[in-house]
Amino acid sequence: MRGLVYGGPGNRSWTEIADPVITDPRDAVIRVDTVTVCGTDLHILGGDVPAVASGRVLGHEAVGTVVETGSGVSSLAEGDRVLASCISACGICRYCRQGAYGQCLGGGGWILGHLIDGVQSEYARIPYADLSTYKLPEQVSDESAVLLADILPTSYEVGVLNGQVQPGDTVVVVGAGPIGLAAVLTARLYSPAHIVVIDKAEARLQAAKLFGADTTVLAGTQDPLAAVQALTKGLGADVVMEAVGFPETFELCTTLVRPGGRIANIGVHGKPATLHLEDLWIRNVTITTGLVDTSSTPRLLDMLVAGQLDLDHMITHRFGFDDFMQAYDVFADAARSGALKVVVSR
């Protein structure tokens, strides 16, 4: 079969690889039907995630069909259509028992496309399959479901929940990529008074308006601090979410938050950012970080079925498996291609 293989920073190839096999009784093997590329994959290719070894198959977001299960898998059968979560959970360790699956001590957490081969391939092995997959209702399309593998639970848990968005809040999202847009969409569930989105690309700001942003700021042309202060009478935002992963965007967030406000860092950082405690210590600011646990995935799936999550505008480009390299090129050049989320399907 073929897979998207990481060959070191800046190096990737769509090439022949070995078929996956069951190595643990709790494994399942799926035929990958729909898969997507994540901003984290670009961070890996940029050398920001050194734990990823050369030769690793990338990818941690997929919808597929079960083709084989290990003897310890009890809830899945051949032919089941499933969402493969970006987080694997042993279900036994201390963190899994708390629902903090991202910190699994039993060999799970974020391992797909990171510490083990991922799902950007024609078939994939899914560890701890009972707890790391979700059967999909017929009315949920593959394209909608794959967005629940990572970006929706990540934005919701690490951004909205960690940021404690409340009714009437002023919320600022720095970065209007897929994660930032999902943060806008899920923040709307909590009835904030204003959502401000900041980005350098006008096309992404237009997309942010479709997802529910009230105000957009074109970085480099408009002053984000002036815009937020004008909206809040000089106070600052109640919640600021960092959805890029650059030092300068994190540092921008610290200037936009009000005294007593919350900064929720969602972005994947590969370089140090300066924490200006000389300014922040007196302002009662809370800063949170986090890896998604995907404990919210069942709830988000229920909301998707109920029509409470409109994901129609998220996917902008579609490719077949033979065009996987092109899918990466388009996603990586979002400023010119206008790509939000790209999907690759059989």
TrEMBL record:
Cofactor: Zn(2+)
Tree of life domain: Bacteria
SUPFAM superfamilies for the chain: GroES-like (SSF50129), NAD(P)-binding Rossmann-fold domains (SSF51735)
All copies of domain Enoyl reductase (ER), residue ranges: 7-344
PROSITE patterns the record matches: ADH_ZINC (PS00059)
Keyword line: Metal-binding, Oxidoreductase, Zinc
Stated family: Belongs to the zinc-containing alcohol dehydrogenase family.
Name listed for the protein in its UniProt record: Zinc-dependent alcohol dehydrogenase family protein
